[in-house]
Amino acid sequence: MSIAFTVVTVFAALWVGFSAVSVFTRAKWVVEPLAAYGVPASWWTWLGVAKAAGAAGLLAGLFVPAVGVAASVGLVLYFTGAVITVLRARSFSHVPFPLMYLAPVVAAYLLGLSG
């Protein structure tokens, strides 16, 4: 396991974890766009749970690689869905936000493959 992989994976996990906490605490800058995109409020907690589980899975993947792979694949699907949701809502200027979370997860995954 390379140092780059470890650093990127820990960063990705902390970054996605921050996103989960932002949903759990109903940060205005997160929930207002979710409502505008048409995401039902009843889903918000579950979306936060998915992010938190993915972040925990990335960290666990440092010790059990298969868990990290599963977590990264799940997070890639999650944030791809977020990009699609933003595009469907025609909030094109918001597309970079889910991409900011997607990029380090993809980087961790690719570094793990090359490691």
Mean pLDDT: 95
**Radius of gyration of CA atoms, rounded to a whole number:** 14 Å
Low-confidence stretches: none
Instruction: Work out the number of β strands.
Output: 0
> How large is the count of helical segments?
5
Structural class label: mainly alpha
Distance between the termini: 6 Å
Anisotropy-based shape: elongated
What does the main sheet amount to? none
Element order, helices and strands? HHHHH
Task: Give the proportion of residues in helices.
Answer: over 70%
Strand content: under 5%
Please tell me about this protein's structure.
- This protein is an all-alpha fold and 115 residues long.
- Helices cover 83% and strands 0% of the residues.
- The protein is built from five helices and no strands.
- The protein has helices spanning 3-24, 28-37, 41-60, 65-88, 96-114.
- Helix 1 runs antiparallel to helix 5, helix 3 (41-60) runs antiparallel to helix 4 (65-88) and helix 4 (65-88) runs antiparallel to helix 5.
- The longest helix is centred in the middle third of the chain and has 24 residues, at 65-88.
- The radius of gyration is 14 Å and the shape is elongated.
- The model has no long low-confidence stretch (mean pLDDT 95).
